[in-house]
């Protein structure tokens, strides 16, 4: 099933999708990192927002 972009929130806010250009753009802007840094963090800790944020902050 395709992602319904009209329904956001809930799980959409808890996971980072690297397959959608707009999500990569939004998350890199939110975290203040490059796309490469974001992709490396997701590869290391998974796509959970909290885990990625901790990784990017070096915690």
Structure description:
The protein is built from four helices and no strands. The protein has helices at 11-14, 21-31, 35-45, 49-57. The chain is globular, with a radius of gyration of 11 Å.
Strand content: under 5%
Number of helices: 4
Uncertain stretches: none
The rounded distance between the terminal residues' Cα atoms is 36 Å
Summarize the structure.
With 59 residues, the protein is mainly α.
What are its keywords?
single chain; 59 residues; mainly alpha; 4 helices; globular
Write the SSE topology.
Layout: H1 11-14, H2 21-31, H3 35-45, H4 49-57
């Amino acid at each position: 099933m395709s992602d319904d972009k009209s329904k956001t929130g809930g799980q959409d806010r808890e996971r980072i999708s690297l397959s959608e250009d707009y999500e990569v753009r939004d998350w890199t802007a939110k975290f203040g990192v490059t796309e490469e840094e974001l992709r490396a963090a997701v590869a290391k800790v998974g796509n959970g927002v909290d885990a990625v944020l901790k990784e990017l902050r070096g915690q």
